[in-house]
Design a protein that fits this description.
Layout lengths: L1 H45 L4 H20 L5 H13 L23 H7 L5 H14 L3 H9 L2 H7 L4 H6 L1 H6 L12 E2 L13 H10 L1 H8 L3 E11 L4 E10 L4 E11 L2 H17 L9 E8 L2 H5 L9 E7 L5 H24 L1
Parallel strand pairs: 1-6, 4-5, 5-6
Antiparallel strand pairs: 2-3, 3-4
Helix pairs in contact: 1-2, 1-3, 10-11
């Protein structure tokens, strides 16, 4: 019976692969079609003497004719999306390395729903980054929508606290050698836990919630993270300690320890994580691994502790705030700007001394 089962699995795999290829081909064909429709609309509108009035009438008439012959999918609003798609992504087929910074090529890995979401991102640099990241990481359209909502790109840039890097653009960022600062966010948005702001939360509840939603948490952590273990015990000659969550980042080639803390960050929290990282490097780290990274995930930062503890100059220890609800865009931008200003002010004070 075993050979028959193996035979069945082989045939099943062939069918699944074919279906996957068909789906990709259909998506690519539809995306190309909508881009081409948008191109023709723009070309036709530009030929009109009164562009605004002509364009409005043109889309209404075109929608009625297409809907009558081809059915749903060609409403006036959708035709406007097609037009905007062509305007925002002016190159359909191009080698990415040969593009000028103002030109954007579409990615065949993404479906039309991805592009409808991307069209809402007005910053071209951010939109291009989200497009490339979604394609390379295989984000679903829901994952893309979520990452845009929590300003994932902006938090990535703010973690570097370097306006020069920000100006260079997303392609230049990817060309830099990987650094822990490229992968650590502040704040982490854990809205997928669906916990109300006033709910009393315990560390064990937070840990269990993250594990129950591990795929969403990995998405929030960012590129290259893989879950290793929870509550891992590390032992010395006379004592044992448990670390909340262990991950491995295959881009940085290092273990990442996460300690969950309720309330405001303390010196004791920093000292504990410093000890964990040193112990892990000594007892668990292999020769091929880069130095271990420790992240203290707390509900409230303490800038004095961050400045006057080993956090200030350590390349292995970091503290980040987490929120369990989705802040507004204005709140997230304010939080990012606040963190940037505090760090820049600290740098200026340090340089004056």
């Amino acid at each position: 019976m075993q050979p028959v089962n193996n035979f069945y699995q082989d045939i099943r795999q062939l069918i699944e692969q074919a279906r996957s290829h068909v789906k990709v081909a259909v998506n690519a064909t539809m995306v190309g079609l909508y881009w081409s429709i948008g191109q023709r609309i723009v070309e036709e509108e530009q030929g009109g003497e009164k562009r605004a009035e002509y364009g409005k009438a043109l889309l209404k008439q075109l929608s009625e004719q297409l809907t009558g012959e081809f059915g749903e999918g060609y409403s006036v609003s959708n035709l406007k999306y097609f037009r905007q798609f062509y305007l925002d992504f002016p190159i359909r087929h191009a080698m990415r390395g040969e593009l000028e910074s103002r030109d954007v090529s579409i990615r065949k890995e993404l479906g039309w729903t991805h592009y409808k979401i991307l069209l809402k991102v007005k910053n071209q640099q951010a939109r291009t980054w989200y497009m490339n990241e979604a394609a390379e990481e295989g984000w679903s359209y829901r994952a893309l929508e979520r990452q845009i909502a929590v300003l994932y790109y902006e938090r990535l840039l703010s973690s570097k606290f370097d306006e020069g890097i920000k100006a260079e653009g997303s392609e230049h960022i990817k060309a830099l050698a990987p650094s822990p600062l490229d992968f650590i966010r502040d704040p982490y948005v854990l809205n997928f836990l669906q916990i109300s702001p006033n709910h009393q939360l315990y560390e064990s509840d937070l840990e269990q919630g993250l594990l129950d939603n591990i795929q969403k948490f990995l998405l929030e952590l960012g590129k290259g993270f893989a879950f290793v273990k929870r509550q891992q015990t590390i032992k010395t000659e006379d004592e044992a300690f448990k670390i909340d969550l262990i991950f491995y980042n295959y881009i940085l080639n290092c273990f990442v320890l996460i300690d969950l803390k309720m309330g405001k960050l303390t010196h004791q929290d920093v000292g504990q994580m410093d000890m964990y990282v040193r112990m892990y490097d000594d007892l668990q780290r292999k020769e091929k691994d880069s130095p271990t990274i420790g992240i203290i995930l707390c509900s409230e930062k303490n800038q004095a502790v961050a400045k006057y503890s080993v956090l200030n100059d350590s390349q292995q220890l970091y503290a980040s705030k987490y929120v369990t609800y989705l802040p507004t865009e204005a709140e997230l931008k304010a939080e990012i700007e606040k963190n940037r200003e505090i760090l820049e002010r600290t740098k200026r004070l340090d340089s004056d001394q």
